[in-house]
Amino acid sequence: MRKVIVVGGGIGGLCTAVRLLKQGYEVTVLEKEPRIGGKVNAKFKNGARFDLTASILMTPQIYTEIFEYAGKDYRDYFELLKIDPIYGVNYASGEKYNFYSDLGKMVKTLEGIEYKLPIRYLNFLTKSLEKYLVSKKYFLNEPMIDATEVSNKKLIKEFMSISPFKSNSKYLNSVIRNEQIINYMIFQSMYIGVNPYKNSNIYSLIPAISHVYGLWYIKGGFYKYIEALEKLIYDLGGNIQTNTTVEKIMIINNKVKGVISEKGDFKSDIVVCNADYPYAINHLLNNKKKCLKVNKEDYSCSVFIMYLGLNKKYNNLQVHNIYIGEEFKENIQMPFKGEMPEHPSLYLYYPSKIDDSISGKFESILNIMVRVPNLQYKKVKWDKKNINKFRNMILKEIEKINGLEDLKENILYESYLTPIQLKHKFNSYNGTAFGISHKLNQTTYFRPHLKDEDTKGLYFIGSSTHPGNGVSVIIEGTKILTKLIQDDIYKCKI
Ligand SMILES: Cc1cc2nc3c(=O)[nH]c(=O)nc-3n(C[C@H](O)[C@H](O)[C@H](O)COP(=O)(O)OP(=O)(O)OC[C@H]3O[C@@H](n4cnc5c(N)ncnc54)[C@H](O)[C@@H]3O)c2cc1C
Known about the structure:
Layout: E1 3-7, H1 11-22, E2 26-30, E3 42-45, E4 48-51, H2 60-69, E5 80-83, E6 87-91, E7 96-99, H3 103-113, H4 117-140, H5 148-151, H6 153-161, H7 168-175, H8 179-189, H9 205-213, E8 215-218, H10 223-235, E9 239-241, E10 246-252, E11 255-261, E12 264-267, E13 270-273, H11 277-283, H12 288-295, E14 302-310, E15 320-324, H13 328-333, E16 346-349, E17 364-372, H14 384-398, E18 411-417, H15 419-426, E19 458-460, H16 471-490
Parallel strand pairs: 1-2, 1-13, 2-9, 6-15, 13-19
Antiparallel strand pairs: 3-4, 5-8, 6-7, 10-11, 11-12, 14-17, 14-18, 15-16, 16-17
Helix pairs in contact: 1-10, 1-16, 3-4, 4-9, 7-8, 8-9
């Protein structure tokens, strides 16, 4: 039986482990932290379960497919609940709308804003869905390890058909032509951490798929999915070893031999590295050429998150809420210049709306997330004084939201996540939230590959590799990766 070591128990590492176990490999996951999950993690306080980062679950069929692949019924592992309205959106002007994936309800809401807006919205959905389907068929589901994959005529024609070079904001302006809705769409398309005023409109597919397929919630919070994967790995006979930092990937004569960890050596035929790709290149491999290349890449922004345990329930909040702040365009771009926003736009995650089991001894719990510069810029000092200043600025913005004026007085517990923690806890290179940036010239074949070109038996998976960042995208990536490994075995390349 071939032995596999997976370095890192993030979503990419865990899902690869499941697929390879199902294919009959002997798999051990080595995770440096006491708890697996990587950035999809949890904070436990007074019986409450705070999701650490990820909260938005799109395309649920991708989350359940891996259980089917393993021959299991996902319902024995976790419970999915549909969310609609998908967002409550608050504007600095005081206006507030609920937006739905239910088409009839969405059309009615938009008609109330501007009478022909529903027609433009439907046009947007059609066009952006096309971008999603083309991206999925020709890029996201393909290995992209060979230049010929991006140079064939059919693919270039399909790629050009979705007009990828227009910026996201220009595209939305031309299709939607309503500032409030444009800003709502722009905010969502930033879930991969690129500047929407400078980057491809392809990412408008993010709000489109949220509206088309809806948003979902896992009972008990997002971290329940990691617990479900952990159970699945054990059910399939896999091994997970936490508190184990890998220090080097062992390579002899261009062939992987296993890893060296603080707890000893682990020999294997295959190593799948789920630790963030640029970190792995710089620290786990001795390859100066690759370091030079990866260090020159453009990186996504980072985030600052406040976790609040509250003494009150806020009925006017939905599960997912967006606050579009003043001078949206200027402020939303500041992190990409290395600066903190002065009037931050916010994402508010309020799982207590749908889940009584999550709040513990608090009346309810709330995460507030703001995009901030990554550590590459070195302009922001994440010390106590600055964190407190930024926290106060955020709470001042929150007071502008109808119904949340008294939030500050109802905080019983408060903690934060900064780019520094993303860097040190998860080895997220430059403390980014979303890895190597998804600029067009850093996607598909031009993004770090799933397979190392120089070393037999060495593979990578995660936010900074193809197909890219986001839980469902990475889960899909593990499908491509498993097929690559199987093909290499079949062709005796390992
Ligand atoms: C704030 C925030 C919000 C997000 N929201 C969403 C969302 O709503 N929906 C969504 O789909 N996605 C979201 N994402 C993106 C999603 O969380 C990530 O894309 C995904 O979790 C990354 O998974 P990964 O496989 O790259 O592994 P990572 O999460 O990067 O995990 C890598 C693992 O490797 C371990 N490791 C590193 N170095 C070593 C070593 N030397 N030895 C052993 N172990 C090591 C780390 O500790 C970590 O556990 C969000 C991300 C952030 C940061």
